[in-house]
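Changelog entry: the Zinc/iron-chelating domain-containing protein record was regenerated in this release. Current contents:
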Amino acid sequence: MKYTYYYDEVLASAFKLAETNGYIDSVKKIQNQVPKTKCECCGNCCMDSPNAYFVEFLLFFREFKQLSKEQTKNIIVKTIDWLLLSLKNSQFQCPLIDENKKCSIYEIRPLNCRTWGFESKEQFEYNYENNIKQQNEEFRKFYKTNYDIDIEEPPRIDYCDKVIKVDNRPFSQNDINDMHKRIIKMDSKFVNRQIIKHMCYQPLPVHLGVFIQAKCKITWDEWALLRVQILRELNENNFSKTYESTKERIIKGLNLD
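Regenerated structure tokens:
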């Protein structure tokens, strides 16, 4: 799949479209409509990286490009680990979390991060059973069917009742649903609505991973095989030469060495 190599051009075109139509600033305004909150900062909600829309990734990437080389390398290395080692160890936190359990992109974090803790327990359980659990099962089935590999089931993140609103603005599940619909409408300017869930609605590290693949000329097929090879080596020796060489290749490919 050589089209991966042209992702730089696709991203540049998407930025132009988004900037011309004000999508990036619009999604930021939508995100900022979520009431401010406070919590215990336990980091439990960041045990996984929630899905973000493509236009949210464009907002993230605009800020990402302004980071120092050291900051960029830190996020890239964590993202590489998250992408390449999570088949072996599903306990990885979101790579955008720092050592103090603080979000390194807090001001531009995705809508799903902002609305965490606002859902009712019933809505949370429904989403888990009908979305997250199903996605996890499909993911594990894919690797078992295609590579005869058993993937560790990701840890379930429990419902959180420790998020507290610090203002009195009314905010309901209907408001959350409306925000998602407005962002989906913007995403539909880039791809057909029917495939947004499969192509655009992915964790930020996955979006960033596609950029990494393109810059380092790694196709989708090669990426999948690398993950499988790394997992097999780790299972056999608890060490992966493929992982070390791939990590070095990416660092050099992004001029971060």
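The radius of gyration is 19 Å.
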